[in-house]
């Protein structure tokens, strides 16, 4: 049975990934700061494990890696992310806001990816996906979101670095653009439901080959230039 590892799966896009992979019969490993609501957890299949994970606390990542030692992961989806106070003008963006965005959206996924490398190496699919954003692209002209856009642009670059570093063992390092999705992050406004977005992203993940590694892929199957 294939296995998927997902961060930030207690709500929003991450929860929908957990639902869809579980419905498809995958083994599902969740890494959540806030535990999944019991009714959501109960609605998933039998083979679900949930670990405590806080992107701001390296010890939680280390603990997960220790518990998963020797276990293959076929697909990892590093989805947890924040967009704090997106409308702030530049003069009000603080070092604290910047640091939290960079640690949560860039450093934490990179750190976790490094810890999970041994598991991905022994997995079948070898897909390491990180949920990025169109907001990281220079083609995006909506203003503000300073810290968020910087952190997701850095995430894209780190994933491209990994695609080079890990090419020798066939890693497929993808960043993903979910579209504008109705979740708490967007005030439940957007063009897509989590179900529509995740269905598209799963198609991208499941058809990706090493030739696609290092690029930003949209839910619609298109490469997004950045
Ligand atoms: P939500 O706000 O619904 O979910 C965010 C998830 O990230 C929650 O599970 C949250 O956990 C988790 N998270 C935040 N901070 C931490 C942390 N320090 N440690 C562990 N988990 C954390 O938003 P979405 O589902 O929309 O967002 C998922 C991803 O998609 C994000 O990376 C986001 O940037 C990206 N994205 C979303 C878009 C959209 O339109 N919705 C568009 C483009 C990208 P908790 O409940 O504990 O806070």
Automatic annotation (TrEMBL):
A matching Pfam family: adh_short
Record-linked SUPFAM superfamilies: NAD(P)-binding Rossmann-fold domains
InterPro entries reported in the protein's UniProt record: NAD(P)-bd_dom_sf, SDR_enzymes, SDR_fam
GO MF, any single term: oxidoreductase activity, acting on the CH-OH group of donors, NAD or NADP as acceptor
Gene3D superfamilies reported for this sequence: NAD(P)-binding Rossmann-like Domain (3.40.50.720)
Signal sequence extent: none
TM region(s), chain numbering: none
Entries under PANTHER family matching the protein: SHORT CHAIN DEHYDROGENASE, SHORT-CHAIN DEHYDROGENASE/REDUCTASE SDR
Name the UniProt record assigns to this protein: SDR family NAD(P)-dependent oxidoreductase
Protein species of origin: Devosia aurantiaca
């Amino acid at each position: 049975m294939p296995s998927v590892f997902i961060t930030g799966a207690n709500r929003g896009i991450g929860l929908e990934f957990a639902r869809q992979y579980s419905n498809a019969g995958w083994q599902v490993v969740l890494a959540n700061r806030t535990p999944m609501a019991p009714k959501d957890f109960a609605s998933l299949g039998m083979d679900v494990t949930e670990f405590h994970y806080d992107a701001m606390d390296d010890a939680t990542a280390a603990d997960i890696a220790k518990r998963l030692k020797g276990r293959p992961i076929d697909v990892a989806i590093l989805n947890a992310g924040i967009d704090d106070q997106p409308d702030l003008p530049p003069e009000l963006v603080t070092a604290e806001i910047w640091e939290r965005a960079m640690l949560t959206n860039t450093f934490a996924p990179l750190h976790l990816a490094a810890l999970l490398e041994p598991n991905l190496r022994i997995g079948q699919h070898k897909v390491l996906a990180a949920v990025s954003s169109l907001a990281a692209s220079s083609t995006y002209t909506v203003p503000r979101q300073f810290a968020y856009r910087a952190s997701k642009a850095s995430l894209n670059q780190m994933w491209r670095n990994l695609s080079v570093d890990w090419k020798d063992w066939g890693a497929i390092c993808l960043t993903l653009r979910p579209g504008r999705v109705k979740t708490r992050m967007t005030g439940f406004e957007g063009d897509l439901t989590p179900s529509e977005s995740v269905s598209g992203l799963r198609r991208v993940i499941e058809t990706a080959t090493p030739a696609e590694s290092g690029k930003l892929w949209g839910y619609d199957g298109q490469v997004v230039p950045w």
